[in-house]
Amino acid sequence: xxxxxxxxxxxxxxxxxxxxxxxVLSDAESVLNYSHDExxxxxxxxxxxxxxxxxxxxxxIMLICNxxxxxxxxxxxxxxxxxxxxxVYGGVILSLxxxxxxxxxxxxxxxxxxxxxxxxxxxxxxxxxKGLFYPPDPASKxxxxxxxxxxxxxxxxxxxxxxxxxxxVLNLEVVLPTGEIIWTGANVLKNSTGFNLTQLMxxxxxxxxxxxxxxxxxxxxxxxxxxxxxPFYSAGKACESVASVFKAGIIPSAMEFMERDAxxxxxxxxxxxxxxxxxxxxxxxxxxxxxxxxxxxxxDAEAIGEIMTRFDCGExxxxxxxxxxxxxxxxxxxxxEAVKSHSVYKEEDTVVMRAELPRLLAGVKEIGxxxxxKSVCYGHAGDGNLHVNIIKGEMSDDDWNNKLPLGIxxxxxxxxxxxxxxxxxxxxxxxxxxxxxxxxxxxALELQKQIRDVFDPNGIMNPGKMFK
Length: 468
Ligand code: MLT
Ligand code: ZN
Prior knowledge:
The protein is an alpha+beta fold. It folds into 4 domains: 9-98, Uridine Diphospho-n-acetylenolpyruvylglucosamine Reductase, domain 2; 102-220, Uridine Diphospho-n-acetylenolpyruvylglucosamine Reductase, domain 3 (2-Layer Sandwich), CATH 3.30.465.10; 224-336, Alpha-Beta Plaits (2-Layer Sandwich), CATH 3.30.70; 343-442, 2-Layer Sandwich (Alpha-Beta Plaits). Helix content is 36%, strand content 19%. It contains 16 helices and 18 strands. α8 runs antiparallel to α13 and α13 (357-371) runs antiparallel to α14. The structure holds D-malate and zinc ion. Residues 81, 139, 335-336, 347, 379, 387 line the site of D-malate.
């Protein structure tokens, strides 16, 4: 294992010379603020927080840290759910919050160049004003940074039709751990030139370099949506219905699954939304269709309604107004926070082929009974991406700490057995790294570590993440 050095007063002085004192923070309050993200209850204090403004400043910082063997953890908005931005070995938190400019929206080529500290929704709204569309929409879209989305190839509800962040990244400017600044590709839609460094960076959780500019491709904005909430008397049946919709040739722009507890807790958590739910209802699907041809979309919605009746659904609620649509989405997006406020929990981000969703859900519940835990499941059913929130409830601390990892291991083993893997969109980071052997053979893991070592020979870049 790499050994790291502490930050000395002279190194601190060098940081201040590069950035100015204002952007070099080590007071107790800042250290506390930057010691956690949204992952459960983890705290790892950095020694210093640096807030650079240019790639050149980052390059100078990396040269020093590489020479002095100081760990550097890049950080966006701190909304991550796998602990990927936690400074587990102390050292530097490199915050990208001052990289907050949309540099260009190129309407002729349907592309945009942005900095990594731009908030996802700010970018979505800016391109929307020009009739353009950036689809990736994580639940935290109102606060998460595009750079963080790249680090984890974040998804969100629209991924089912439009794909995750990686589908939109054309080219990246990156400061390497050794200080050099490179572009990974070209601003083109087709590219068969060399290894795909761009896609290697996407999802690499800030371990291969620090992204300082992003070139995204964009789409024309669909003008219309239909949003429907479908209740089911069995959660298993709700999951079974999902694949039939796609088999019928319909690709919704979102297809979200929510167990009864998920929707109940969300409705209690969020203000101003009331939905009457029959007490026998066990789960819902929230389905959205988008496009420009309302007649065609209505036909698809009717076809979905017919398919759903084969799976014992209740009366479907169609959102009539824009406000109703927004409310349903607001309710869905707050489930994660609602669960968090309810109990000590652990969130897993399981993913299987969508037709295997019923077996995954049944397996999760069976494993829960065996190990004595309850779970609240929800997520992106159309993608086979089920967020399994394990609730501590009555479990003893001993069982929570010692037995639960065995249960999680069984859940992940089931995912892989069903053709899936252990994270669909939250990443591996700190909290899932012990399970990577389930997803990869030792050779495939070794190759990934070797790639990391090529980029970061001294092992200073976001150490302690992804691999044991
Ligand atoms: C979601 O789908 O709500 C997000 O991935 C966040 C979460 O699961 O907590
Ligand atoms: Zn999600």
